[in-house]
């Protein structure tokens, strides 16, 4: 998850310094994709943690 957060931060920096609308649009798309990845990884981590915390009966 740290990689997605770092990528998002990098895209935000590049968006700020870019003056090309095409590059900026592409970077915005990539940033949004990283945000979604971060959210999905977080959801998956929560599901796995819940599964690991539940009692198992054999």
What topology emerges from the helices and strands here?
Blueprint: H1 2-17, H2 21-53
Architecture overview:
This protein has 58 residues and is mostly helical. The protein has one domain (1-53). It has two helices and no strands. It has helices spanning 2-17, 21-53. The longest helix has 33 residues, at 21-53. The radius of gyration is 17 Å and the shape is rod-shaped. The model has no long low-confidence stretch (mean pLDDT 91).
Question: What are the defining features of this structure?
Answer:
58 residues; 2 helices; single chain; mainly alpha
In a few lines, what is going on in this structure?
It comes from Tissierella praeacuta DSM 18095. The chain is 84% helix and 0% strand. With 58 residues, it is an all-alpha fold.
Query: Count of DSSP E strands?
Result: 0
Order of helices and strands: HH
Distance between the termini: 34 Å
Q: Which residue ranges are poorly predicted, with pLDDT under 50 across at least 5 consecutive positions? A: none
Average of the residue pLDDT scores: 91
Rounded to an integer in angstroms, the radius of gyration calculated over CA atoms is 17 Å
Instruction: Give the overall silhouette.
Output: rod-shaped
Beta-strand percent range: under 5%
Pfam families: Mn_catalase
Cofactor: Mn(2+)
Family: Belongs to the manganese catalase family.
GO molecular function, one term: metal ion binding
């Amino acid at each position: 998850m740290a990689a997605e957060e770092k990528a998002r931060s990098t895209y935000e920096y590049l968006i700020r310094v870019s003056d090309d609308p095409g590059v900026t649009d592409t970077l915005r798309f990539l940033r949004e994709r990283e945000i979604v990845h971060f959210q999905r990884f977080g959801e998956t981590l929560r599901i796995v943690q819940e599964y690991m915390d539940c009692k198992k009966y054999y």
